[in-house]
Amino acid sequence: MRGEAVNGGAQTGHAQGKNPRSRSWLRKSVLSLALAATVPLGISATVCAAPAHAAFDNTGLDFYVDSSMGPIKSRVFRAADGNTNRVVYALDGERAREDDSGWELETSVSRALTAANINVVMPVGGQSSWYADWASPSTFLGLPAGTASGTDTTGSGATQVLAGGPGKSYTYKWETFLSQDLPAALHDRLGFSSTRNGVFGLSMSGGSALMLAAFHPNQFAYAGSFSGALDLSLPGMKDAVRLAMISAGGYNINALAPAKGLAWQHLDPFEFAPKLKANGTRLYISAGSGLPASTDAINASTIQAMGIEAVALVGTKAFQSRYAALGGGNVTYDYPAVGVHNWSNWESELNHMLPDLSAHIG
Which domains are seen in the chain, by residue range? Predict the structure, then answer.
């Protein structure tokens, strides 16, 4: 079902169950099935991304900003009409690279957004960071970063747990960077507005986009989540995220946030949903059915992406139930009949979101 709009607390479609115990049993059952389908195939993550490919956009500007993490690069794409008040941040996924954003490497969304007269900011880096301010650098067994070479020939990231690098040689402070350092530099050097911005993310960063809007409402008036992990309190989710972070670069979840602490709740859209309602944030939230599109080759990667998307769908539906119970409105939910955990799905969802995004920022 596409474009399931919710305004003023009145919800269309997808009736909410009346028995909380029944819903809890269903959530546990579906999550267990999704994880069982995923982990044996070698995906120890519920929030990784299957690859696609797009042409490099040479209209982008390399924009470096100093931070407590050192100089951080973003890619900036200017709106076609030259305005400076319509700005959106595009957050990367769990396996974010240090050279360019996955949104640029794997999709053509920068062209679609700039053609709609929206300035695009793509922060680069932040692998397994959840775009959060971490408690400490990621280390294991009390050993300092760089103890191991970090050479990874398996693709799992498990051999990198004792390696140095971003978030290991220093403490990740991505929330501070995105809400303070980067908008200030964009305003000072390019004249970009730092109010009524939009932010969206996929997979790992779907919840991060909502987190930024919840805790920085003056900056972000709009947030979009594609296949995000929107209920981190679901049974098994923290263990799934723990495995995901080891798989994607060898990161220790305990350095991100202690178990059941306030820092973990700060990352969980299910927990901070009341803030989004109170802020009046405009939301666009989607998750695919887990069924592959006709263009998706049936191979191991697609089968893995099917299981991961099933987990994202469970969490997204749980968030929807929670938000509806709070009387939350000003949100569109989109559940395409086909769609797995991959870039082609997220690019399609971005294009569906674009008119709504354009109408609610700046």
Answer: 4-126+174-240+258-360 (3.40.50.1820)
